[in-house]
Description:
By secondary structure, the protein is α/β, with parallel strands linked by helices. The chain has helices spanning 42-49, 70-76, 92-97, 112-124, 140-153, 170-185, 197-203, 221-224, 227-234; strands at residues 4-13, 16-26, 31-35, 57-62, 65-66, 77-80, 158-162, 189-193, 206-211, 214-219, 236-241, 248-254.
Amino acid sequence: MVTIATEGLEVRLGRHAAVRGVDVTLEPGRLVGIIGPNGAGKSSLIRAMLGLIRADAGRVLIDGKEGMDRREIARRIAYLPQGQTLHWPLAVERLVALGRLPHLGPLSRLRGEDEAAIEAAMVRADVLSLKDRVATELSGGERARVLLARALAVGAPALIADEPLAALDPGHQIDVMALLQAEAQAGSLVVTVLHDLAMAARWCDRLLLMEEGRLVVDGAPRDVLTADNLARVYGIAARIDLEGDWPLVLPVGRLEN
């Protein structure tokens, strides 16, 4: 089990304040969605949690520890970045196998447990049938699922996915969100950056709403996805029904200034 906490976290990218004073604790067993407009600081927040960019103030604690080395973080937290470009014509199975690197020493070969983790990840991401295909020849949606399989192959107790629904058709979007929810229900900490508010309402246990680098609302979807919050942060009007079996959030138009 992994817990991630930030205390007064500040991140600057050049002159831009990307993350401003964020205090949050993320605990296992929940699917946490991070939402907000473009440029709100969502990706910068998770990259700082992972130690991929430097915090200018405050700190990040993983299981109560600060300054954990990158290899240990990679074993504990699998990461699916957004918008990855594939440059090498690797077979899908070999690409997914890269998820096992945090567990291998220099020049080490895959063991039986690694092979099992790779196959299980491909099954869960619905890409086992693609294992012999060349990854650079796949469609955008197929590549997205293969990269998710690579993250799952890590076998880490936490997963952070940055916009995992991009390039996916509606059916596979549902499959991915159901998979992330299942990972959380099995005891993992799962954090995902989302732009689709309907998917956030339907699948997430907790939402963090960000605006201009600040965490402005943190809570259950019904407490975060209110007309007032969406108007203030996104500048939109929306139809919202979170009371039924299938939550509904439908943006219907821009609000006039």
